[in-house]
Known about the structure:
By secondary structure, the protein is an alpha/beta fold.
Amino acid sequence: MYFTGEAPPLKELRVVLLGCRGFGKTSSGNIILGKDVFDDKTKTVRCAERRAEVIGRLVTVVDTPGWWNGLHFSDTPELTKQEIVSSVSLCPPGPHALLVVVSVKESFMKETWENIQDHLMLLGEKVWSHIVVLFTDRDWLGDTTIEQYIECEGESLHWLVDKCGNRYHVLNNQSRSEDQVTQLLEKIEEMVAGNGGRHFEADTTILQEVEKKRSHLSTRVEDRETRAYRQEATFKFVMGETLPLSEVRVMFLQYKEKSTSARGTESKDDNDNSDTGRDPIDCPTKRWEYGGKQITMAFVTMTPCRKALEQTRRQMASGMSVCAPGPHAFLTAVCMDLPFSETWRREIQEHLELVGGRGVWQHNIVVFYSSAGWTPDQYIESEGGPLHWLLEKSGNRYVEMVSESSWTEVLRKIEEVVALNGGSHFDAEELGSRMGEVEPENWRLEVQQLADRMKEQELVKSMDTPPQSEYGMGI
Ligand SMILES: Nc1nc2c(ncn2[C@@H]2O[C@H](COP(=O)(O)OP(=O)(O)O)[C@@H](O)[C@H]2O)c(=O)[nH]1
Ligand SMILES: [Mg+2]
């Protein structure tokens, strides 16, 4: 009992799910296979293959990590692109269909269409004859039919549907109705029949290219891990047992160029429990105790420096005053969900060099975080020059922030930074003189006020702490 009566059911059917993050790829995989075989509680970071017997066929589904909705092809990290290409190798000899998942809940813009084209081109032009558009969120349409939806949605969606030879289907992933899956499989079989029974065969040079990149990457990652291990061992040998800090002051810098929030994706930026009700120029501050240390952290959200130079300066000054008499370290956050661009690198440089020259880099640590699931070493090695520049400037110091317990490693790195700097925190006095030399009058005033504020705070501190060094290592 198949749909048009034109194509007999295949014994075996292989499909790959592609599309934006949060559009329902993983949920569709579970609905197609009739059971929860893919983990839909966490973000898909690696391709995964599952199979099951579905209405008389052995069906293999490959789920993939998606690209960002609303961003561009250039915002997809290299590692995600590699996953997309290698997805087709997970169901040998190749998928019968590639399902491009589109949520009817989201507006289908020109950028959505461009993004689909660009990502599919990773697999070569031949892919188009094997694509079916799989709409999700059928329940959101109510009484509207999918045809009415397509009709109303505008020309970008028409281009996609046309390019796919008018092959599409809609699923409600909240429903376990078998009918919707049967119809989808029949539409795929109809397409396969139209393709003379052939499955998609990726261009071998494209696959070999990705394989080569992956194998180079894993060698470089191993080298990097060995170097990091040696660097740490040398450090321990040279420094011996350093006295631990009892108070740690840090400036945490985070760049916000693009929003990467998608449906089903929590923004990493919204969960700090910093002070509120403040002047927008003032840095949010967090103070807490961890591992017997008192930590003070000033958050600086890096906005494009050139657009709001004065605001940036005042924000940095505010952060510096929170960390008076000077931060032990600057923590520069790098989100691994996006490629590390030259613009991003420049912003970090311009922000940090506002408060200091060489000294600032000697106190900088790069903090990686991600929902993407790869390690900093993999990310570093798959990224290009701008990130390598940042790491080199920062003495190749980096840590990964995964959870609260990552602070143990962060604090260890901070102590390493302090020890490497002869036991000192970043020198705020040097900051005052340096900025006074190079910056215009109003900034000089700002720095002067900052220096005064720091002195005041230092005075207050010295009144309620014993005269001997409180922090160890002579700080
Ligand atoms: N109401 C409704 N929610 C859906 C549907 N498909 C997916 N979702 C929800 O959308 C969110 C993202 O889905 P997921 O499958 O993880 O998307 P992926 O990132 O493309 O794999 C989840 O909360 C799903 O429960 C659907 O057809 N209807
Ligand atoms: Mg997923």
